[in-house]
Structure formats: C-alpha cells, structure tokens
Amino acid sequence: MVRRGVRYFLRGLLFLLPILGLVWIIDAVATFGSKLFPDLPSLVGALFIILFVTGVGYGGSRLLAFFLRSRLTKTVERIPLLSLPIKAMGAFYKMGVRAMIAFDQPVLVPGNGPEERRIGFIVRVNARSIGKAEYVPVYLPTPFSFWGDLILLPREALEPLAGVSRDEILDFLISGGISDTKE
User: Fold this and answer.
1) Domain containing residue 97
2) By the 8 A CB rule, do 101 and 112 touch?
C-alpha cells in the first residue's frame, strides 16, 4: 500500500515538475526583465519572455539536432551494412537536383541487337575527367525505379531525340513505357 502511494507520488511529480519548472522559469525571466527595464510596462515584459523562450527553443533544437545527427552518423559509420547504403543514398540525394538538370539531352543509343535502341540522357559533353575524351557518358534509367546504368559511347553512336521534353522521356522510362503524356 505504501509502495503504491510512493509510486503515485513520484508519477505526480513527473507530471507536475515540467509545468512547475516552466512557471518558475517564466517568473524568473519576468522578474529579471522587470529589474532590467523597470520603467517599461508589463506587456514589454511578456514580449521579453516570449522572445527569450523562443530563442531558447530555437537554440536548443538546433543544438539537439546537431548532437543527435553527429552521434547517429558516427554510430552508422561503424556498421558497414548500414553505412554503405546510407552513404550511397546520401550521394544520390545530393546529386539528384544536379542530375535532373543535367538530363536535358535525351538520346537513343544502340542496344544489343542491330535494330534495338535504348533511351538515355547525355550526362556531360565528354568523359575527359576519366581520360576518355572521345566518349560521351550516357545515363540509362531503369524502369520502375530511380536506378540506372552509365555507359560511355562515341558521339557518332548517339541519335538525339528532338521534339520530346525531358519530363515526357523520364515519365515514359520510369513507367516502363506505360505512360503516354501526349494522350
């Protein structure tokens, strides 16, 4: 019976302490504000309290977010099965905007058979950065996903797709050829 009473007392403290602590902090800030600015009306004191609490909330959340992010990053980096996909997704996410901007030159590239063609996007003018200036890097998106293949082809092997927008080509590719934006 006494144990249950002590447990309820402690639970009551858990509920009341944050509220009482908040009231005490607001009172302390208001007292400090009235001592600091004795000639100002209480409305300015209330504004001071609001600004103070907002500043503490902003700073605390930024500090907490920084601490949690750095701690989580360090923990994940120690686990290879987690770090590899997360790093890859992070790099993919960072390059996502640049890649979508770069996908402005749709082309047809040769496929496996003599009449087969694949749709891709020229990523840059040439592959000079890897010592193959005579080749053009082309990204070939995979249907039903955001993955794809990067291949190097000579410029002569590329057939530009004129008159079709980048968005129409991406919709067509990602949907596996199902979508038709012209209808």
Assistant:
1) 87-174
2) no
CB within 8 A of 93, min separation 6: which ones? none
Q: Which residue has the higher pLDDT, 172 or 81?
A: 172
Q: Are residues 102 and 165 in the same domain?
A: yes
Q: How far is CA 24 from CA 7, 20, 27, 42, in A?
A: 25, 6, 5, 17
Q: 69 and 106 in one domain?
A: no
Number of domains forming the structure of the chain: 2
Higher pLDDT, 99 or 33: 33
- Considering the domain boundaries, does residue 160 fall inside one? yes
Q: Is the pLDDT of residue 91 over 80?
A: no
Mean pLDDT of 46-51: 75
With CA atoms as reference, report the closest residue to 126 among 152, 100, 147: 152
